[in-house]
Records
---
Amino acid sequence: MKKILVIHGPNLNLLGEREPGVYGTDTFDSINAEITELALKQGMYCEIFQSNHEGEIIDELHLARKNYDGVILNAGAYTHYSYAIRDAIAAIKIPVIEVHLSNIHARDEFRHTSVIAPVCAGQIAGFGKYSYFLAVDAFKKMLKDDETNE
Ligand code: DQA
């Protein structure tokens, strides 16, 4: 069974109460339950990790390279300036899909730049919690294609 890890960055633990007009009213726990359930339905094992600290996110990416087949990463505001997280993604061989609930390209100017995008497999933004679900779907296809090629 393929294993994927979802990493949520800073402030995403407050989903449900944090700026509901931007991020919706679904809670952090309910979104995670839906992601995990969807992954299982697709025949993949999914774990969730959240941290408000850059170094912890980097540590988790390092650990993931040994234990998972892919990572779904919402790096929150670190997306826009963390070269350290970018380097961690570049350092590991497993694919990382960048995800955002909001459409970062339609928001403040500083959010238009993702310093992690060039080292990610792809970016999904603007579909609320469905951004995560689309990333699960992408992994289902990507990791299955890998198997076919083995
Ligand atoms: C976010 C977008 C970021 O700009 C912001 O700092 C977040 C959440 C999103 O999911 O839309 O914390 O990553």
---
Amino acid sequence: MTGPLLIALPGNDALADALVRLLDGERGRVELRSFPDGETYLRYEDAVAGRNLVLVCTLDRPNEKFLPLLFAASTARALSAASVGLVAPYLAYMRQDKQFKPGEAVTSTVFAESLSRHVDWLVTVDPHLHRRSGLDEIYGVPAAALHAAPLLSAWIAANVTQPILIGPDGESEQWVAAVACDAKAPYVVLEKTRRGDRDVIVSVPEVERWRNHTPVLVDDIVSTGRTMIETIGHLAAAGMKPPVCIAVHGVFADRAFQDLRDAGAARIVTSNTIAHETNGIDVTALIADGVRRLSPRR
Ligand code: R5P
């Protein structure tokens, strides 16, 4: 029996190596570089004909990653790979899932349709499913949306004394409720109004009764950090302790990480769906289970 051939797109080597070990697979290599005009050159260095390929490519900063990924997937098919799957621990373009203003692109649909044409299956972790019930609403291939909540709960139970979990907005309730349940901790959810990309207002919560607890902010994504930063300000005003900030996906746009630290986060912890110095929660085994479910065995 031959295990899958794992191909890491740039920046995904550590995860691909770890998956090779868990899946009894092999590492394959692609030569990937840019021509002087910015176009992409890609060549498989290993024979892929007849192999079950797993492309490993987390999709933060997706615009620069998307074309190389499509070239890798379509070339593998052209070279007669038996199957081409994608492990994208962070799945981009999930948040613009409806037209908020006339004329806007619903990018989640366009992105999903494009990707579905080039891969046979997809494994990801906690995609931002807010108004959609599942990935199958937009992806035309089998897709596993894995849940990191039990891993977040275990981290909190092992590292935080007397936690009170805090969801910064209604959208975060699905994560925070699940994490709180497993961690056997109380939780509250705040109300958020987003006035612009970097302009967020969070309601003052009834937090006084939790003053002796350690606040733990839980969200699926930290992008600009504004949601967590705004929440930290309100907790401080209410006399709460500096919070531990936990997110599944640490996207950290621009200076978000420094800004969040400067805002008074006691600790910032993310999972390794996106490689970052805050990674403290390992989702590799979860992803390996997802790959076992979807990748053909031969
Ligand atoms: C909202 O829909 C998400 O759950 C996060 O709260 C949001 O994406 C965080 O974004 P930012 O860090 O830019 O405030």
